[in-house]
User: Fold this.
Amino acid sequence: MAIHLMTLCMVIEEGLDPCRGPALHKQMIHRPVFHRLEPPTDRGEVTAADVASAGDADAHVERVRQWADSAWRAWQDHHETVRQWLSYSRSDLERPPT
Assistant:
């Protein structure tokens, strides 16, 4: 979960291209500083089922963005921890273009 939360942070807060996520996951896992986070009781207002029910490709892309935003907000109690993990792991990562 840590890797995915770190990726959400970079995508949502820093504008990282989501297509770079898998490559970054491979780099982040080599500097494990993670511990268990208590999952939120409410996982967000947009679910995977909402994504699956999106109509055309444009609607699907928009629904995925909404799902990501919703999931990131749901984990808000842990944002600072995720940012710290990301900061520590970043010494091996490329910074996203600004």
In short: The mean pLDDT is 86. The longest helix spans residues 57-74.
